[in-house]
Amino acid sequence: MSVAPMIDWTDRHCRYFHRLLSRRARLYTEMITTGALLHGDVARHLRFDDAEHPVALQLGGSEPADLAACARLGEQWGYDEINLNCGCPSERVQRGAFGACLMAEPQLVADCVKAMRDALQNPERVPVTVKHRVGIDRVERYDFVRDFVGTVAEAGCTTFIVHARNAWLQGLSPKENREIPPLRYEFVHRLKRDFPSLKVVINGGLTSDAQVLEQLQGADSPQAAADQAGGGPVPLDGAMIGREAYHNPWWLASWDRLYFGEPGSAATREDIEERMVDYMLRMQAEEGLGWYGIARHMLGLRHGLPGARRWRQVWSDHRLKGEDPRQVMALAHQGVERAEHAGA
Predict the structure, then answer these.
(1) Cα–Cα dist 179/98, whole Å
(2) Residue 87 Cα to chain centre, angstroms
């Protein structure tokens, strides 16, 4: 189980929060472009807390030499995986000739993967993985993604994280690209059947344990049954959760028990909130950071509970930026108590 890389969301503070909820889930950085690392502030982009392990660095780029240099940096900074983005459909990413448009050039992606692996001191300990779509634009043939995976696998990539939708490079916003192209879970299962030695992780549209278990266990599903040529679903190696993990983060608190067979944490939502306040105070003392930009990542912590709306309002109130986060937490809980008392 892993939390997807999400631009503007899965920064180091978000990952620290998610790690408090699950000890085992794999966490991913936002996509970081090769240009940002080669010509920008490396420490700002790559620093992370040791508590975040296992944590993966996702790179965006299409020049093998640049990706190799950035992969080497990722290994030096202690990341557990280097992931190449071949799935982002945004116009800005397309102008840089990377992201989902790379699926049209599988040999280039293979060259990038080989260069990245060759640049690492220990490519077995720090694997190079690829996150991609099942197709681009209106190309909805299984053989397109099959050939892409086959070509890239020959370069040494053994883990493929498959967003089970096409990426439409024209006419849809990134948000629409996460919702409008139909889900094709059967393509992901066929990849696992055709490449049984590869690790295949599914991504896209998963919002509940029932859905995740259906994919991981290979249970019958309407999508797979509809694809007679695919021969039905097979067990997959993992699932990556995106926006549902961000908006409803308490879901992660059950992952260690349900998916990793380990005792779940006994921490309550209130315990997690207090630990985040401790983290905010540490960031303030060590780096001069205010709590406001950190707190935004935990606004879904009380999702679905009485008083959640008032609790979110307090933690997102910019007028309180100058207050001690402990005082903000106390105010937030006063709102929760009033809501609970009123039966809201």
Answers:
(1) 21
(2) 12
Tens of pLDDT, residues 110-165: 999 999 999 999 999 999 999 999 999 988 999 999 999 999 999 999 999 999 99
Are 8 and 30 in contact by the 8 Å Cβ rule? The answer is yes
Q: Do residues 82 and 116 make contact, with C-beta atoms less than 8 angstroms apart?
A: yes
- Tell me, yes or no, if 70 is annotated catalytic: no
* C-alpha closest to that of 305 among 261, 250, 234, 263: 250
* Local structure of 222: helix, strand or coil: helix
Mind listing the pLDDT tens digit for each residue in 306-330? 999 999 999 999 999 999 999 999 9
Q: Specify burial of residue 3 (Cβ count, 10 A radius: 0-12, 13-18, 19+).
A: buried
Residues 6+ apart with CB under 8 A from 268: none
Q: Find the catalytic residue in 14, 86, 88, 157.
A: 88
Q: Which two tokens stand for residue 87?
A: 């799935």
Dihedral angle sign, alpha carbons of residues 75, 81, 82, 88: negative
